[in-house]
Amino acid sequence: MKAKKNHPSVQQFKEFVKEHPKLVQEVRKGNKEWQEVFEDWYLLGENDVIWKQYKNIAEQNADEKKSDFMTQMLSAVKKMDANTVNHHISNVSSTISTIQGLFNQFGLTKGSSQTSSSKSQQPFSFRKD
Questions:
Q1: Angle, nearest 10°, between helix axes 21-29 and 34-44?
Q2: Is the pTM of this model over 0.70?
Q3: In sequence order, what DSSP letters do the residues of 3-35 get, joined into one string?
């Protein structure tokens, strides 16, 4: 038995329907017919505004979450106190300085190991007069 090949526009419509699962529900409920949906899709195109309501719920939720995240970030930035942020930054800076001092005290810095190895590689010392 030979497989029937569909027209390319039918294949594109099938892909469109997969991206808009609410269309399938509308047709199954009897609110629309496939012929009507196909004609609207063919005439109006995939990017028309009427298709937004039939789009996948997960994609809509992802778009809403992105906008919610941005509004939350903006509100958090508005609520920040500059003096408190400055205080925390200075605390972090002093902590880093303390850790660097400990590393220097115990000889765990990169510079100390590099200078000792560079001295051993040059057996003769040349001095300028």
A1: 140
A2: no
A3: PPPPPHHHHHHHHHHHH-HHHHHHHHHTSS-HH
